[in-house]
Every structure is written in C-alpha cells, then in structure tokens.
Records
---
Amino acid sequence: MGGDGGRGGARVSAVTSPATTAPSGGAVPGAVHTLLPTTIVGSLPKPSWLAQPEVLWSPWALEGDALIEGKRDALRIAVQEQTRRGIDIVSDGEQTRQHFVTTFIEHLSGVDFDRRETVRIRDRYDASVPTVVGEVRRERPVFVDDARFLREITDRPIKWALPGPMTMVDTLYDAHYKSREKLAWEFATILNEEARALEDAGVDVIQFDEPSFNVFFDEVKDWGVAALERAAEGLRAQTAVHICYGYGVTANNEWKASLGSQWRQYEESFPLLQRSSIDIVSLECQHSHVPMELIELVRGKKVMLGAIDVASEVVETPEEVADTLRRALAFVDADKLIPSTNCGMAPFPRAVAAEKLSALSAGAGIVRDELA
Ligand SMILES: [Zn+2]
C-alpha cells in the first residue's frame, strides 16, 4: 500500500467516470459529475415509521420481517432523495443501522451486550457499553446484503461507511485483551474482512469513521493510523477516513466550546494520513473553527470537504457552499475536491436534510461552472 500514486487507475475511474456524465455545471438530473462529485458523510434522517425522528440512535419502530422490509424501503428512499437532489456518490444514509459503531459490533462474537460497564467515550461523556469477554471474531457478514441491495438500486458510484478501529475500541469495555492497541488490531483485521466483502458487493468507496482521531493524539501516532491502514489493506475500492467533531449534541457542543477560537486537532493526524495509504480524508469545515489552511497538510490526497453544517438546521445557501469550496481550492486541487457534509444528518427533520442536499449540489454546481 504505497500511498495515492501507486494505486489502480481503474478503481479511481469507477468513482469519477460513470456511464452518464454531465459535461460541466449545475445539478443535471440523472448525470454524475466527474469534477467536484458530491457525497454525504453518512446518516440521513429515518422515516417516522421506521424509528423515532429527530433523535440519535432511536430504537426501531418495527419488528421481524416488517423491520427488514422497512429498512430496505427506507434505504430506497434515501437513494432516491440523494439522486433527485443531485448527489453524485450515493450512500445508504445508514438507514439499516441504529448506531454507527454498536450495530457493527453486534455482529461479532466475543462481545457480551448484557455485561455492561460505564466508560468515558472520547474523553467526553459517560456511556454504558458492552464488554469484550473473549476473542473478537466476525462470525458473519455485517452490511454486505445491504450493500448488495444498494448496488442493485442505483447506477451511481456508492460509498459505505464502517467504524474505524480506534473508535470501536473507545466504544467498549475490554475485559479480555486489556490493551487498546491489541483490540484495535483485532478489529482492523475484522474490518478488512468486511471491507473486502463490501468491495465484492460493488462498493466503490469504503469510509472508516474515526472521530477518535481528534482526541487521542498519542495513540493516533503510536498505532491508530497503522490500524486504520490494516483495515484498508489490499482494497481496490477507494478508501476514506472521516474525522469530525461529532453530531450537534450537548456533550459535543460543550467540548467544542472548550476548544478555543481555532480548532487545530487535525494538525495531529493529517501529516500521518498524508503519508498513509488512505485515499480520501473527510473533514468538517462549514461553520466550524477549523482553519482552512490545515487542508494543506494532506496535499496529494482527495479531500471530502464538509460544506454543510450538521449542528444547525439553518439551510446553507448555494452561494455559501460555493464560498466554502472556493476557499478550500487554495489548498486542494480541484480534481481532488469532493464536496460533502460535516458529518451525518440523522438528527435533522427530513425536509431540512433534503434541502441541505440540494444546497450542496447547487453550491458545487456554481464552482464547477466557474472552473469550466
Ligand atoms: Zn462525523
């Protein structure tokens, strides 16, 4: 895995050269853009018949076969909405999972969900979490059927998000390995198995969510990036890492308020990621205090730039989105810029999320026209 340059051109074209291509400019229905292809980081709101709206990690409103069918229908709607709103690289909107980490862990052996301990998550808030009681193993595919379904219902390039190894470790109590590094390595191996299966199911971009990279800087250096590369090892699909400041929930908002006027946390991980085998770095920018010039630290990588705020229900204007993208272009080449959201949009009312998708496409369209 020798960084961006050594990787297959065929794989890149899977994302940037689909069958239908808009020559330039605004959101042309049915066409995928090769320049500034838009995407979202992860979650979209779920329909109220599937789970309680505007709540994070809310329990399912259906059971059994009705739940299976409901998740599929919600996934279908998520794809339809992204397509209609001009999103180029579509995802499942995380309609089939309750929590971005726990749903994955539920499919593994070695973790006891009935034995719970209270731990401090990301050094920020206490949560009751399951316990690692033995060797962790992936007994069966986790998201592969869902990804195959997503592949069936869209011709667009598709992206799938998985939790990153360090963030998984940070969401559990470990009574077995008693070493965060060892457990991360086990998870990286498991994630790699899942990622390879997702790739075989036709996924073009595999994203690992590592919000922990903004918190545990020593571990990021010591083993975090290495574990992430292990999770991404040997993949033909493009690989992305998403590092953010989290959803707009109280614990996160209080943490952000303590970070001062300039959020420089990316300064710790970006130089390491720049030298890593990961293809795409996803960061938040819109309305955050991240100095734009930090993007320079991952020069050469593709940048999934957060141009949509997920902590405010105020919908950005296309011009605002365009302005954020223009400022980023001082630090990233246009052919490497992927306009995106800051993080997931699950807690929003559905209409707000949908309008934000439209604003993202329209803003990217403005800048595309300027570049053409
Ligand atoms: Zn995020």
---
Amino acid sequence: MKIIVVGAGITGLTAALALRERGHRVEVVAADLGGLPVAMVNPVRGKRGSVVAEAGLALPLARRLYSRYVPLHRGVWRPVAGELREKWRRKLEGSPVACEWREGGVFLPGAFWLEARRLRAAMLAGLPLRRARVVAWRERELLLAGGRRLSADLVVWAGGAAGAVHTGLGGRFSPGSQLLVGEYFASAASSGVFAAGNVVGGSYLPHRNHYAPHTTRYSEVVWILDRARALLGYQPRPLGVWSGVRWRLDGAYLHELPGGFALGGFGSTAYLLAPLYARRLADLLDS
Ligand SMILES: Cc1cc2nc3c(=O)[nH]c(=O)nc-3n(C[C@H](O)[C@H](O)[C@H](O)COP(=O)(O)OP(=O)(O)OC[C@H]3O[C@@H](n4cnc5c(N)ncnc54)[C@H](O)[C@@H]3O)c2cc1C
C-alpha cells in the first residue's frame, strides 16, 4: 500500500518506520524538521506519581526501538516530599514500573532521557521525505502550499500540535519551553521541571483549546530557573531556548478518519507511547 505520513516528529517517524517494516511504500511529508531538543521517557507523571496506563508495554518497546539509533541515558530521579511518599509507594508497587527509594525520592532505573534531535535525524535517514506544508487534507488527497496535490492509498496524519487542526479532534494545547544550559546532567532529575543532558524544561502556562505558536516569555525563563534551583541546589546557566506546544487527547491517540488515520495527542508522553501506537496502527492495517 502507498502511505503518506504527514509529520516528521516522533509520532510520524515511528509510524513511518513501523509501516515500512510491514512492507508498505511510505513517504513522509513534513513542513519542518525542528522540534524538542531533549526527551524524557518517563512513565511516572505529575505531583501524584501517576503511572501511565500502558507503561508496561510502552517502555520496553520504546527502549528497544530508540536504542537502535542513539544512546539511552538510563535512570530518572524524582524527589518526593515525605507526606506524599506513602501515596507514591502504593501507586508504584502495583505498577509494572521498577523503582528504588533513595535520597529523599524515587529512582526509576527503567526510565531514560535521550537527545531527541539526534534520534529523529537518525530515524529519518533512509525514509523518503518531501519538505512541504499541507494546507488541506481530503480523504486520500493532500493539497500542498503552492498548489501541488499528492495522493496515496492511505494518509497517516501525525502533524503534532501545529497540525492538529486538520484532524478535527480538538484536544488541549499547553505551551512550554526547554532552556539549553551550560551544565550537563548525565542522569536525569525531575520535579516541577526536569534536568537532563544540557536542558532544563517544564511549563506552568494554562492550556488552550486551540493551537497557537508559542514564544518563550521572560517570566517563564525565571520560573524554570527557580524550579531548577530547587531541584538541583544551584541555578544552571541559560544559553538558549526552545519553545513548543503539547497536544493532549487524553487516552485516545489513534483515530480512523476518512482516507486514513490520525495519530498523536500524547501530551508529554509522546516519546514513551509513539512506538506502541505505531505498532498498533501497523497491526490494524495488517488485519
Ligand atoms: C516544554 C516541553 C517539553 C516537553 N518534553 C517532553 C518530553 O520530555 N518527553 C516527551 O515525550 N514529550 C515532551 N514534550 C511533548 C513533545 O514535544 C510532543 O508531544 C512531541 O513533539 C509530539 O510529537 P509529534 O510527532 O506528535 O509532533 P511534532 O513533534 O510537533 O511534529 C509534528 C510534525 O508535523 C509537521 N506538520 C505539522 N503540520 C503540518 C502541515 N500542515 N503540513 C506538513 N507538515 C506538518 C511538522 O513540521 C512536524 O514535522 C514536551 C513539550 C514541551 C512543550
């Protein structure tokens, strides 16, 4: 089958590779190749230590796939306040996520961080890529900026937050930033913000019901640096910034639409869940 995958973020790339592995002819169409500099792949989320529902399936799959392309930096440390420890313990004990209690928090030996730009570049190498912006998607046909049309047997839309409008799926859009810093955190730590590699990142800005491009504000930099100081015990030196928007669909990430499928809306768990959902899509097309 000839399949066009729109999007060269982690969702589009995992889908394109999974579909190509099953023998489909795949072309990736993407407006741009920028994106998240450093990704945490951490199945334990938020202040309450909630474990992502499909972590037991998704984490080993993500580890296996990504380790073919880049080094994985294993282990994430998460401080947990004394009064919350019992709650965290209960949640983690019944879950498939391995953990060790140490240094006033929990260490997750199976979670990891990776250099996301390097990963995406390595995954993209060898995939046919067309750099173009899709302005309309109608069934099996795409209209590109400039007037050209593309068609395929199936379209997989993996356009992330910026492309979500073409899916009609709604969702929530949360802006946030990663600061590129002078320090290097070989082992990741996370609480309010996360520190991994040469990045500290996080967000507190309210979500919206539509996508709008985000530009980092000064107050956001101050907020991230304050949180980083609380986490690390010192303030890292900011050197640059990346701004982005998360798209959240809360649990339903694969949708059949006329002419194809929409994949995405993973929020902050895209790097954890994308390989699992790419495989689900490939299985669905096989069946
Ligand atoms: C501050 C911050 C920190 C984050 N940290 C993490 C983290 O640690 N771990 C994690 O898993 N996630 C994290 N996220 C979320 C993560 O960035 C996204 O969930 C992830 O990038 C989604 O991947 P995607 O492939 O679905 O979309 P994207 O990465 O947004 O890629 C979309 C692709 O589609 C293309 N596209 C869109 N519209 C069109 C169009 N009309 N025509 C052609 N191409 C189009 C784009 O050019 C791009 O190639 C973070 C987000 C923010 C804001």
---
Amino acid sequence: MAILLFFFFLLFDISRAIPVLDFSKLNGHERAKTLAHIANACEDWGFFHLVNHGIAKDLLERVKKVSTDFYKLEREENFKNSKVMKLLNETGDKKLENVDWEDIITLTDDNVNEWPSQTPGFKETFKEFRYELKKLAEKILEVLDENLGLPKGYIKKAFDGEEGENNAFFGTKVSHYPPCPNPKRVIGLRPHTDAGGLILLFQDDEVRGLQVWKDGEWIDVEPLKNTIVISIGDQIEVISNGRYKSAWHRVLSTTDSNRRSVASYYNPSHKATIAPAPQLMKETNEEWNQAYPKFVFGDYMSVYYQQKFHPKEPRFQAVSAI
Ligand SMILES: [Fe+2]
C-alpha cells in the first residue's frame, strides 16, 4: 500500500486530490495527528479515501467479482432495453437532462429475499461485506463524535432515534455505469449531495468517473485500489451545525469501460429527529446560532426525493416548514 500511495502522490497534485487517510494510525502514536487529518477532511472536503480500514482484501476481491458477474449475468441485457438507452437512441443530438446513465439495485436487511439469486456467491458475499462495512461505519461515527467534541455514540444514538438501538438504516446501492456511446449527451449520475449520514463507497479500481466539487471546480476521485471512499451526508452537516459539509459530487459516463460502484449508506431511522448538537451551537446575544432546523429524517427524505439534484439549502427550508 505504501508504494501505491507513493505513486499516487507523484502522479497527482496532492493539494487538488481528495485526502488519503490511514485508519490504522488511529491505534498508534499518530492518533492525534490522524484525528486532526480526518477532521480537516470532513471540514474542507466532505470526502476522503480511507486506507487500512480493516476490511480484508480477500473479501474486497470477492465483492468485485460477484458485482461484475452479477452485472453480466443479470443486468447487462436489461440495460440494452432501459429507458435511458431508448432516450439516447431516439432523441437525436439532444442532451438528456433528467436521467442518469446508471444501472442500480439496492440491498437492505428488509429485502434480502429480492437480492440477486442467479449469481453464485452474491448474497453470501454481500451479507459479509455489509456486516463489515456497518461495523466500520460505526467506528468512523465514533471518530466524528470525538473530533466534534460530542459524547461517544452521540451520532449513532441520534440516527437510531427514540425507538432505540440499531434502528439506524443501512443500505447498499450496487451501481454500474456501462460504456456510453455518447457521454456528452448523458451523465453517469447528476450532481447531488448525499441525503443521509455516512456513505462508504467501494469504487472501481481502474475506471474513473467520480468527481467532487471543490472551490469552483470538479476534482477527480482517483481510483485507488481497495480503499473505501467516505462521503459526509447532509445529516452529519446538520448535527455538526455546519462544521462538516456534505459535498457535491457527480459521475461522468465513459465510452469504453463499465464502471462499478458499491455505495453503502448509514442513515438515520426515518423516525429519528435530527438537529444540530446543542454542544455545537454557541450562545450569542441571548440567541443560539442554530444554522439548521430540527426535523424528522423521513420528512427530509420526502423533500429530497423531489429535490435531490437541486441545491441543498432549500431542502432545509422546505423541511423546516413541514
Ligand atoms: Fe452520492
């Protein structure tokens, strides 16, 4: 991994590349420095690569294999008849505005019976992967608690809601961005910020496409083998009272490659009430500087489904009016 990172830093201007953070260093004498780097990444980028995250390489290799097999066996043929393919073929030179060149399925604990069944090893591998990722997500949330000066478990508890332990939602989106005959006419995934809490993305080793908006330009999230890319969602922006920011990101389509992307999101329960942590609001002139409203996450999602690809600020206004 050290050699890979060396070449990575040689190839790219570090100041314009999303941070690469070593999770294992939280266990050693570099803990304080690593915590500070993670805090900076959450404040400045809302996105970072995590290396040495503790998920076994063998499991990651199996996830890649079953995802690719799954697309070939169970999705490729369908995509040829998809709505977006038809639109691209039937609309001349017109740029397509309201669609994405993307194939998706969503895995949750509640729809296991609907998970792909024809691809050998898919269910078993994804059950194991999701178990490991969820544990990792909870460890990262505790790091965020610590960096924000919140009691250990604060964010998880907020996400669980009043119904108690383990009610936070954990979903996994398995996406493919197949070769596109005309990437200028349709994007892989339109720009958006992530609605939920913490997003753990296992992206393609080789095929580029993901970009993050930073200081007025799109920055590539370079493929870096077996890292997990972390994205801060809107709910952590709210709980942190704006100290951490969810970042705009998008996926470009490409002509010659099929990009694989597995995004898992650790979100609040739909019934959970989300608000800025009182510890992160300062009292000024007898008023609290609360930068975000208090709302029920399910209400936020109702707004998000309508406005996902719009600026996020009006979403906060809309949900506070519910
Ligand atoms: Fe996203």
---
Amino acid sequence: MKFNSLGAALRYRETCPYCKNNLEVARIPKSTAHPTVMNNRMYWREPITNEFISVDLDTEEMEISSKDRTQGTYYCALKITCELCDSYYHVFNLKFNLTNRTIECIEINNQGVEFCDSDYEYSITNSKSFEKIALIKRYIKTGDEKIIEFPYMDIDIENPVNTLKRLEGLIAYL
Ligand SMILES: [Zn+2]
C-alpha cells in the first residue's frame, strides 16, 4: 500500500484494531535514526552527530541539518505500533530524495498481528520486500512453537483468523 504524503500515511491507521489505543511511532532497535514527532514535524535524528532530517506533516517541507547529506537518496523505516496490547504493528518504508527535498515513496512494507485462542498463541507477520508471510503458532501449555513461511499475502487486520485459516489451508498442501 502506497501513500502520497507522510501525513496520509500516518492517518492510515491511528488506533489499534484490537484494543483501540492510539498507535505510536516505535523505536526500532539497530536503527541509526529514531523517528520522533515534535511540533507537527517528524525528525529522523542521528544519535551520535545529532544531525537530522525533518518533514512538516502538513506541508511535507523538508529540512536537512547536515551539510554532508544534501544529495542523493536516504532510506528509512517507520514503525507504528500499539504499546498497550503489543498485538499490532505496521512498518512504512520511506525513500527520501535529498536533492529535491521530497519523499519519493512511502509504502507499508511489513504488518504484524498477534492473537490467541484457548490453546494457541498466533503471530502473523508479512514483508513486501522479502515477499513472504510467516505464521508462528505456539502451544500455550508446553510453549512448543512452529514457524511456517509462505509467499507474501496481505493480512486481514480486522479478522486475522481469516488469514490464519487461509495459511492453515495452505499447510495441508505442503
Ligand atoms: Zn492494542
């Protein structure tokens, strides 16, 4: 799913589909620049040099603090997650054109959901760039886990059990 603007991408889903809590920008481990929102601007700040790229969420006007980073392309990921129930996230991949000071591409690359029934905990995650979807099925009583991967498909966020049924249908053919 692609978006025309960063503002539109952030409005894609503002509350958790399961607990209805507000979704938040997550810290991404190992990421060099953690995105944060301040005064209606999103900042990608380098932890050591403190240099940043920032984008106005309404106008898309871009500011670059680094004198070295004024040309070319900059890629980053933006993870949106539910900090309350921890059962939902999506990750945008962004491509900045630093020369033109525009965002050339904003799309959802990953989504993930977690849910359970009386016997199992399920985690379903997909990735556009890896062209796959993964199901982790954990038997609650023993903690035994099975991980199975399939070619990419969208997750039915509102009813993830539908996606689970589709994947379990595919297991029969493995
Ligand atoms: Zn939630």
